Amino acid sequence: MRQKKSTLFMFIAPAIILFLVFFCYPVLRTFAMSFFDAAQMSSKVSTWEFVGLNNYFALNSTSFPGALTMLFKVWLFCGIIVFVAALLFAVMLTSGVYGKGFFRSMLYLPNVIPQIAIGYMWTLYVFSSRFGMLKRVFTAIGWEAAANFAWTSPDNMFLSMCIAYIFSSTGYFVLQYMAAIEAIPKSLYEAAELDGASKIAQFVQITFPLIRNTLVSSITLWTSRVCGFFALSRVFASASTVSPLMYIYNVLFGTESSNTAVGVGAAASVVVALIVVVAFLVSNLIPKNNDIEL
Amino acid sequence: MKRIVSLLLVLLMSVSLLSGCGGTGTTETSKAPDTTTSSAPEVKGPNENSTLNADITFWSSYTESSNYGQCIAAAADAFMKENPGVKITISFQGTDISSTLGPALQAGNNITMFEANSDNVIRLWNDYLMDLGDFYAATYPQTDGKPYSESIVPAYEILAKDQGNGKYVYFPYTPQFLNVWYNKDIFDACGITEKPKTWDEMMDVCATLKENGYTPFTSDQNHIDYNLSLYLERLLGADGADELANGDGSAWDDPAVLDAVKKFEDAASKGYWADNIMTVVVPEARQELVIDRKIAMYICGSWMPNNVRESAGDDYRWGSFTYPLAENGADDGSSLCYGCYGISINKNATPEEAEACAAFAVYLTLGEWGDYLVQTCNAIPISNDPNAKWPDMIADAEHIYDGITTRWPAHGHLRSNGDFLPTFQSACTKLYGGAMTAEEFVAECRAYFK
Question: What pLDDT score was predicted for residue B27?
Answer without folding.
Answer: 32
